């Protein structure tokens, strides 16, 4: 069933190629009442895909803090909320899968404002998602909100397509006398105080209220329905700067449903988005857990052996020390990477679905009831459908909570099994999932030394590079340490590493440790330590004789881990460096040789 004047094609969704020159950009905004509810975000992103939205602005998310997270279906959520752990207000911008590549910068302002800037094919777009105080709020709260909103509108790049959208709690009416440049004649109701403030803002900054420009039936204009179902208003709005007015093709309410008293509002904009061209630094890991299968383990080691033999015969090793060690390392890295990719594959990123088919069926039934409520003209039937809708909404909430309990119980059983088998890595991952550490803060914007918030990725990367350069390159101490000269030289083995030493070093490696830049885990070498030693020994010999490591070994991946305090301050983070696993094997050999020599001298 579809609502009158809403095609089935729109309701069920059409396939739309992301960033294609043949499609327009579709933006939605919605007061969802809360995202701090079991299964709510999953329902929101499902509706987002159903209506083919590229970008969705969310009001009243009720998430605390600010950050950037990925959903199970690969949407990117940028959110900004209160800092006092009170689950009130909150705004968010959700980007469809792939649109995050168009993101230039974003900035969490407070619990009522968030901004994002995306790259378009013929210009950029600045988005400001809002959640304004209600008309009954005190003047101080309204003044504060509009002062902050004016500051963000004024700071937007002059040539950008500017979109201000969200729950403005403002009625602007249909009388545009003397404000023709700010609004059209297709609004609803009578203007209230918030509406006057909104129109004044639009007049000041040459914005146009898009909802008032297009003639639609009232059912497609009204965005909010009172709890008793008797009153409806048009209080959610989208504003666009006047110079881009003709790019706005349509704005209207849709029949999306997530159990909110607000309707989803969708705007079609004649603008094509394009990628920033920057590749993500993240890479997927090899699925080393599959090495626990004896058959796969044997197939992997056989492939490593065959590849190494074939590449070794084809490769001419240069005699120069620098080239020899780099060529040897390239050979080792290529053999293990190609063999891992072919035999093991990449580790999956898909998580278990928390919502069961039974709950999805109830969600669909709730959606159908909402359509009946909005389409029927009989007051008696409308009251009947409203009652059924409220009951079904409560049922959806109960089912979602039941699903989550079952999901967590299953995880707890898996954790107990992992603890019984001594699988500490798996136990840690499950514990982290159960603790519900969902809202990541690792991607929240940081500040520079002067306290200015950095919003672009390039600025933030430069700040992190500056921070770790200062942390890791401390000036020498003012006073030199009093180090006594050794009485005699240690009788340490200085010959190139032997095969048995390499095998011992490989076996001493710990499992489930993050690899370095080469993406080679310890488990890959431990699958057959003797074979790995045969492959690594020529490399270690070249390094030993040349007295220098391969160029790749001089680079590490710094991972930042939060400490206490404000996470916008780089000093409240600590960094750990991920190094190449073969370099650790060689380091273990050197440490073992020194330890043996020192122990022998101490015994004397």
From TrEMBL:
GO MF assignments: catalytic activity
One Pfam family recorded for the sequence: Exo_endo_phos
Domain of life of the source: Eukaryota
InterPro entries to which the protein is assigned, alphabetical: Endo/exonu/phosph_ase_sf, Endo/exonuclease/phosphatase
Entry-linked Gene3D superfamilies: Endonuclease/exonuclease/phosphatase
Endonuclease/exonuclease/phosphatase domain span: 30-262
Protein name, UniProt field: Endonuclease/exonuclease/phosphatase domain-containing protein
Biological source species: Pomacea canaliculata (Golden apple snail)
Source taxonomy: Eukaryota, Metazoa, Spiralia, Lophotrochozoa, Mollusca
